[in-house]
Write a structure and sequence with these properties.
about 160 residues, alpha+beta, Archaeosine Trna-guanine Transglycosylase, Chain: A, domain 4, five-stranded mixed beta sheet, about 45% helix, globular
């Protein structure tokens, strides 16, 4: 009797799985994925050109543990720009290549090349000093520095 019930349960679950696969087509899955809000990484407007031309593929900044956790769960993010306290404008969608959590003092020459925007000719020590000062409030709150490596997949400009 137990075997018959187990077989019936297995058959029912298998058929239910097949029915769900048939009901949820790839196009519906794609629509659902596009409706899910991706994490956002906001840039100053003058940086957008470097992101779009592919010379800027890394952005380090202090962020909350919650933000880092949300980003770690995502595969893609929206790249945005706009005034600090206004709704951002999405200018691109990017694939998250890698995420690292480490202080500004660990900056390498390779990091500076990926950060771009004139940092290629500076030293890692200069970068760390400027960014530790720029983000002093966030660092004082204990926010770790997250280094987001990304690749632009689609642009909206």
């Amino acid at each position: 009797m137990k075997l018959i019930l187990l077989d019936l349960l297995h058959f029912t679950l298998f058929n239910f799985s097949q029915i769900l696969d048939d009901l949820i087509s790839p196009s519906i899955c794609s629509k659902i994925e596009s409706m899910v809000k991706r994490p956002q990484l906001k840039f100053l407007k003058d940086q957008v050109v470097y992101v779009l031309d592919g010379s800027k593929t890394l952005e380090p900044r202090p962020r909350s543990h919650q933000w880092i956790e949300r980003l770690s769960d995502a595969e893609e993010l929206d790249l945005t720009y706009g005034p600090r306290f206004a709704p951002p404008k999405v200018f691109a969608r990017a694939k998250i290549e890698k995420i690292e959590v480490r202080p500004f003092e660990t900056t390498t020459k390779e990091d500076l090349e990926q950060i771009s925007r004139g940092w290629e000719d500076k030293t890692p020590e200069e970068f760390a000093q400027v960014h530790n000062e720029w983000y002093a409030k966030e660092l004082a709150k204990g926010y770790p520095v997250v280094w987001v490596f990304f690749k632009v997949l689609e642009t909206f400009e």
